[in-house]
Amino acid sequence: MRLSHFTAALACAALTGLAAVPTTLAWSPRPIFGTSESNLPPVMTDGVATWRTFASNDTRTMLFNISTHAPPKGMSTVDGKGMYGWNFYFRGAAFNASRPLLIAFGSSVTRCGDISDVVCVLNLGASEAFAERIALQGGWAKAILDPTQAGMGVLTIVTPRNYNTTTKSPIGTVYGRQAGNHVLRHYRPELVLDILNEVQSSFGFDTNKVVGAGTSMGARGMLRFITSYPSMRAASIVAGGLEGSGSRTMQALPFNSGNTGEGCWNLTIPNSQDAKCNLRTPATMPLAAQFATVKVQMYGSPGDAVANLSTVVKPTCNAINAAKTTGSCVLRLITRVSASNPAAPNHNQLSAFGADPADLNFLIAGYGGRKITVTTKTNITLTAPSISDVGYGSTSAASTSTAFLVPTTTDATAVAPTGTTSTTTDPIAPAPPTSPTDGSVPTATDPPAPVSSPTPTPTPDPTSDSPAPAPPASTDGTGSGTGSVDNGSNPPPAGN
């Protein structure tokens, strides 16, 4: 039986109504799917896998399925095994060994304070990039998931904020305030590989058609993951890079400095009390040869002070191109926030890019799939959030937000679920032009800022980048234009 104990616990709790969660959205910038498990659609099963069926937020007619997995509340682990939550998106049959797979890693604010909270895992797993597109717009849901289009399965990984070195658990930790905490701001490849094995057993996917995407912390994480999974065909990386031994993100820093770093890879030692670390985070820059057959695109900006264009992004792309055989790296250089704002995007603003049709097509091209264009029926306007990652100048136990991201249409209750989703007649337009995929760090550069608007490149605040307005529209098919309509949930400073 392919059903994991996490899935079994989730199905039992949901079907018996015993897993109610608080309705306070202390952990999320926006409740995409609801505020309580009791408000979610019922759990469906084929006897092996479990899932819920949702509808897109715009037209409410495009159905898609999500299988959500959260660790049990009483879990403990010495090596971290089993402490990640995850969501698997699909349309059509639950098990399909021929479907392509998109693995998506989010920024640091997609971490859950309580990783056992199913609703947190569900909502934060859909709060950025392609997963957010699927949840909000039916055209995207069909284009990515429907077997008649890209037909992908989408796997989003949700990580905990902390691991407690005393209780040996990510459950019941208080961010930045509890003794013995190890603050987690990374993705561990071996834990993702365990999840990948479970997804393959329960839902199936074609191991020759696996692609990845990551933003900020997720960008670093996806690049690290590929060093352990070099058979990935393509990856889209936004605001991150490979890490060398001197990278700021790998330094062992005290928590109260406003940046814990990732200097301690050993979960037995807390990194929030300035403890000495006996196992440094492994460097990934020396492993660039693992990308020899992976096609990579990287988004960078001269205004990003976290994933620095000169010291992080370009060296990563150069290292990948130096190792390439059939793989390659292309740099998407973003030089202005929008047509009306000629300033180079800071880290959080750059995180709004990387999830447009051209980006999806770049990934699809990695495994030789048919390129598509997304057509949506409703134009959704979102308000950029302003979120502070707790612990960075705050002692609050929950993240805060000054604005919810909500669609212009109301988030009505999803339609009644069925075992598998139906098809619709949403139009799919012809494919856009092919993105370049070779050369020594080629760039796809936005048009330069008008000479009459000499706005200087901003210096991002080290702890609170400003919210991101919508990025400019792209018409050349070489990278994001509108980007993800979320701005990456304003990730925390330095190495999110």
Automatic annotation (TrEMBL):
Entry annotated with the keyword Signal: yes
Keyword Isomerase among UniProt keywords: no
InterPro entries: AB_hydrolase_fold (IPR029058)
Chain positions covered by the region annotation Disordered: 414-496
Signal peptide: 1-26
Keyword list, A-Z: Signal
Composition-biased stretches (Low complexity): 414-428, 462-489
Lineage top rank: taxon: Eukaryota
Bias-annotated ranges (Pro residues): 445-461
Protein name, per record: Feruloyl esterase
Organism field: Tilletia horrida
